[in-house]
Structures are given as C-alpha cells and as structure tokens.
C-alpha cells in the first residue's frame, strides 16, 4: 500500500489548474521534496492531501483511504505566518491546545495528553524550549517545537509546508537534518515543500516538481533535467551543477531565487 | 469598610452583578485578546447601543434590544469573516453609524440625559433585582456556551491552519465566538457602559496574558483581576463620590501598567 496515491487527480483553484490529471505514488517511508515555482501549487497539493480541497476529477488516497479532513495518520506543519508573534503563551501551551483540539468541551489537558506531548518534545529535543513563548524563539527553535506538535498522536505521514522558509542557511541545515532523522527513526513518510532544491539536496529520497498543472516525481537525476523542467515551466530551462549544488536557470537567471523574497507575504 | 457597604441592598446587588459580569468578561475577554479581535468587541458594543435605544423606542426592554442587535452583529461579522479582516475603516464607519443611530433613537424617544449617560457609561449602582436576575441568566448561558467550544476555540485561535486540517471548522468556531462575545459585551455594558466595555473585556485579560505564559492560570487570573477591579472600583466610588466606571477604568489601567512593567523587566532579564 502506498502512503500517498494520486490517480488522475485534477485540482483547480480560483480558475488556475494546479494539477491536471496527475498520477503518482509516494511509497511508505519515503522522504519527498516538493518543489516548483511560486504559485505552482506546493501548499495546495499539501492541502489536497489533507482533504481540505476538493478535486475536480480523480482521487487522492492516503494509506489506501480517500483523502479526508481530520486524518489522524497525518502530522501537519502549516506554513508559518507572523500571527503567533504577539501571543505570550509558552510553546508547551501551543502543544496542549493541539492535543485533541478538535473535540468539543473545556480545554483541559489530561495526564495522558501531557505525557504524549513530553514524548514528542523529547523526540525532537525541544523540552528545554517549551517553556518559552513561541514569539520569542528563533526560527529554528520554533520549527523544532512545531515538529513536536506534528508528531502528536504518532502519525505515519508528515506534511511539512515550507518549514525552511525564513530561516538562515545554518538553521535550514539543522532543520532539514532533524526532518531526516525523524523520517528514519520513526519510519515516517515525509512530504516537505521547499523553495530551493539545494536546501533539501542530500536529505530527500525523491523530488516532486510541480509546474503549470504538471508534476514530475523521481530521483533528482531523473527530474532535475533541462528537458523535464522545460516542460514543467513551459519555458527553456538550463540545469547547472556546480560545487555540489544544482542551479535551475532560465534566461541566465536562477529561477528559484527570483521567487524567494516575495513569498513571505 | 467593605462590610459596611454590604448593609445597603443596592450595593449588595452592585457587588453581585459586577462580580458575575466581571467573571464573564475576564474569561471571554481572554479569548478576545488572544484572537486579536478587540476592535470587534468595541464595534459590537456600539451596535448594542443602537439596539438598546431602538428597543426603548418601540417599547421593548433595552437589554433585549441590545442582545438582539449585538448577537446579530457578531454573527454577521463572523459570516463576513476574512472579508472583514483588515477592513478597519469599514468597521469604523459602521461603528460610528451605530452610535449615531443610538443618538437618533434617544432623541426620537425623548429620553432624558441620565438614561443616555447610564447606557454609555454604566450604572452599576442602579442595578434592579430584575436586572440582576437577567444578568445571572445571561452569565450562565455565556459561560456554558464558551465551555462547550473552549477546546476547539483555543486550538483555532492559536493554530488556525492546523485546526482546520484536524477537522475544526475555524469559520464556524469564529462565528460562535463572536456571538458569545456579543453576550459578554451586553453584560459588561450594563456595568461600565457601552463606551467602557474594554475596561472589563480587554484590560484584565491583557494584563493576565502579560503576567503568565500559561493558559489556564491566565484565564483564572484574568477573571480574578476583573472581579477585583469591579469590586474595588465600587468601593472607591462609594467613598469618593467619583463615578464607579471611572474608578474601574483607572484600576484597569493601573493594573495593566504594572503588568507591562513586570513583563518588560522579565523579558530583559
């Protein structure tokens, strides 16, 4: 049984075709990096796997079952927005709110819930961070804490939406290494979206590249080629390899970096 | 001193009414501040003013008019949801219009200035036995409703995108909260008036959130601060002859300044 299975999936958001009859399989235990230009639909694909967006056609199956909201097999890290900055609650309180936060009733945390949270904090080595307010943490510390949140309830799949954005290169390395460690140790399937291929190079098993409704899933050598990427971008693309890095170029410009700054808003 | 005060029945009612309302305001206000929706709270109280004065005009009780208008406005704001966020100008204009309408209704109903002042700035010393009864019922309804949605409300407030993925309808929870907030605003307005609801709904929770990083202690502290401010405010007012609402607002501001100073020292340390 595949972890995530798209079968002729067509996804249209606001008139833009994000996926057009895309069929692909992500196997259990794989670490997939999702790449593509801004607006290619990386976050949208993750939301569709979570069952938050209806498909126009085709199916998405998660561990054999149709994608549906509230799937507890999935741990999810949404894209970070600045909204939590002003909140003076400790990291641990954020995690408390997440445990069975979908149930009705008083927000009271049981002993079992507390134990589960400490277990998850321990896995990512964030117990010492958890007493501090989220807004006062560095980007890397915050991601570490939120990974603990994503691990609550022992999910089999992690969907991480842009966990590396707004981190400096040093913190990016620490965070991506942590994701790799979690994937191996807990035998998780990980789908991680990122802006730049080089951020995830060496960590991911396969790459899923999105562009203009098309998707290419395969090893880096298979997908990151001039032919495949030119098809996805619908423009001539050159792939330049230098000093262990790969640069995706269009008309002499590095494609990914062009989109880096305007994305935070 | 406090014991002496309790010989008077109207003062007993003032203490009970303000205590109950402060409890509700402290608890509901905690979520209001957490969600950054204080402006919405302000708008609801102004709409409530139009409701109260309008109700008098057609022979209904002002409390009923206020409840209907505020809750309807709360649900309306919730339904507009995202489209309203960042529309401070639109809310501001509606807010002013509501207050203006309230003035018109007062004028048409030929109310006396004392009634207008009571609505705008509160009249805790004039709480009647019937009003106390109504406030108790409103408080119980508000707290039960909040208790029912407490868990998903906290989750949706702190982690909206994650809550949505886990099956919480962030939008529905948001609408329910604004309806609950409207009830809390109506109750607060009976004590400190339409214009000063912030002093119970925002002051104590904002102070509490500066003083503790934990949720449950924060909610309790917020409620305790609100109750103490209300009671001490009445006691000071009785002894100085200053307006009660002024005394409560002064205490709220004082506590907030202390909280900011304490928090600031904490962060720098």
Which key terms come to mind for this protein?
heterodimer; A: 265 residues; alpha/beta; 9 helices; 13 strands; disordered C terminus; B: 269 residues; mainly alpha; ABC transporter involved in vitamin B12 uptake, BtuC; 83% helix; globular
Fold and architecture overview:
The complex is a heterodimer of chains A (265) and B (269). The longest helix of chain A has 17 residues, at 169-185. Chain A is 30% helix and 27% strand. Residues 258-265 of chain A have low confidence and may be disordered. Chain A has 9 helices and 13 strands. In chain A, the strands form 3 sheets. A 6-stranded mixed sheet of chain A has the order 6-7-8-3-9-10, with helices on both faces. Chain B has a single domain (2-263), classed as ABC transporter involved in vitamin B12 uptake, BtuC, CATH 1.10.3470. Helix content of chain B is 83%, strand content 0%. In chain B, helix 6 (113-121) packs across helix 9 and helix 11 (203-211) packs across helix 12.
Number of helices of chain B: 13
Order of secondary-structure elements of chain B? HHHHHHHHHHHHH
CATH topology of chain B, which one? ABC transporter involved in vitamin B12 uptake, BtuC
Query: Total strand count of chain B, please?
Result: 0
- Strand content of the residues of chain B, in percent? under 5%
Oligomer: heterodimer
Globally, the shape of chain A reads globular
Described by strand count, sense and barrel closure, the largest sheet of chain B is: none
Structure summarized in a few sentences:
Chain A has 265 residues and is α/β, with parallel strands linked by helices. Chain A has helices at 42-49, 91-98, 111-123, 139-151, 169-185, 197-200, 220-223, 226-233, 255-258; strands spanning 4-13, 16-26, 31-36, 57-62, 65-66, 74-77, 157-160, 189-193, 206-211, 214-218, 238-242, 245-250, 253-254.
What is this structure's SSE topology?
The complex is a heterodimer of chains A (265) and B (269).
Chain A lengths: L3 E10 L2 E11 L4 E6 L5 H8 L7 E6 L2 E2 L7 E4 L13 H8 L12 H13 L15 H13 L5 E4 L8 H17 L3 E5 L3 H4 L5 E6 L2 E5 L1 H4 L2 H8 L4 E5 L2 E6 L2 E2 H4 L7
Parallel strand pairs in A: 3-8, 3-9, 6-7, 7-8
Antiparallel strand pairs in A: 1-2, 1-4, 4-5, 9-10, 11-12, 12-13
Chain B lengths: L1 H4 L3 H26 L3 H20 L4 H19 L7 H21 L4 H9 L7 H30 L1 H6 L4 H23 L5 H4 L1 H9 L3 H26 L3 H25 L1
């Amino acid at each position: 049984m595949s972890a995530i299975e798209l079968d002729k999936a067509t996804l249209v958001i606001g008139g833009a075709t994000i996926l057009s009859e895309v069929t692909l399989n992500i196997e259990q235990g794989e670490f997939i990096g999702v790449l593509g230009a801004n607006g290619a639909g990386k976050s949208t694909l993750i939301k569709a796997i979570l069952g938050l967006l209806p498909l126009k056609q085709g199916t998405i199956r998660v561990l054999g079952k149709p994608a549906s909201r509230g799937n507890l097999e999935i741990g999810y890290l949404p894209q970070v927005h600045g909204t939590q900055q002003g909140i003076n609650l400790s990291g641990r309180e954020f995690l408390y709110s997440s445990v069975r936060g979908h149930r009705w009733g008083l927000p009271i945390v049981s002993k079992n819930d507390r134990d589960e949270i400490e277990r998850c904090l321990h896995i990512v080595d964030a117990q010492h961070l958890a007493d501090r307010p989220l807004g006062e943490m560095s980007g890397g510390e915050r991601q570490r804490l939120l990974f603990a949140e994503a691990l609550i309830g022992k999910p089999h799949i992690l969907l991480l939406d842009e966990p590396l954005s707004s981190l400096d290169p040093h913190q990016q390395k620490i965070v991506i290494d942590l994701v790799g460690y979690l994937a191996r140790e807990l035998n998780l399937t990980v789908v991680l979206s990122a802006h730049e291929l080089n951020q995830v190079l060496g960590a991911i098993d396969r790459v899923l590249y999105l562009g203009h409704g098309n998707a290419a899933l395969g090893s880096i050598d298979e997908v990151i080629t001039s032919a495949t990427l030119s098809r996805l971008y619908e423009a001539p693309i050159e792939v330049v390899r230098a000093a262990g890095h790969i640069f995706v170029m269009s008309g002499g410009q590095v494609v990914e970096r062009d989109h880096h700054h305007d994305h935070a808003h | 001193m406090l014991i002496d005060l309790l010989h008077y029945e109207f003062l007993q009612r003032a203490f009970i009414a303000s205590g109950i309302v402060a409890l509700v305001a402290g608890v509901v206000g905690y979520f209001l501040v957490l969600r950054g929706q204080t402006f919405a709270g302000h708008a609801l109280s102004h709409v409530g003013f139009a409701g109260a004065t309008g109700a008098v005009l057609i022979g209904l009780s002002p409390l009923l008019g206020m409840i209907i208008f505020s809750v309807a406005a709360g649900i309306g704001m919730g339904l507009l949801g995202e489209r309203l966020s960042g529309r401070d100008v639109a809310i501001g204009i509606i807010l002013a219009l509501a207050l203006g309408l309230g003035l018109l209704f007062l004028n048409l109903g030929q109310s006396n200035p004392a009634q207008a002042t009571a609505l705008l700035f509160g009249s805790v010393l004039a709480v009647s036995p019937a009003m106390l009864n109504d406030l108790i019922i409103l408080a119980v309804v508000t707290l039960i409703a909040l208790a029912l949605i407490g868990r998903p409300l906290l989750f949706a407030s702190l982690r909206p995108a994650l809550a949505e993925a886990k099956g919480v309808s962030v939008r529905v929870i948001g609408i329910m909260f604004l309806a609950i907030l409207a009830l809390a605003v109506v109750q607060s307005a009976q004590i400190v008036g339409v214009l000063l609801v912030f002093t119970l709904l925002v002051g104590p929770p904002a102070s509490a959130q500066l003083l503790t990083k934990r949720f449950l202690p924060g909610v309790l502290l917020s409620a305790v601060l609100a109750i103490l401010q209300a009671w001490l405010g009445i006691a000071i007012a009785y002894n100085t002859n200053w307006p009660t609402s002024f005394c409560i607002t002064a205490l709220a501001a004082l506590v907030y300044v202390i909280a900011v100073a304490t928090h600031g020292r904490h962060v720098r340390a």
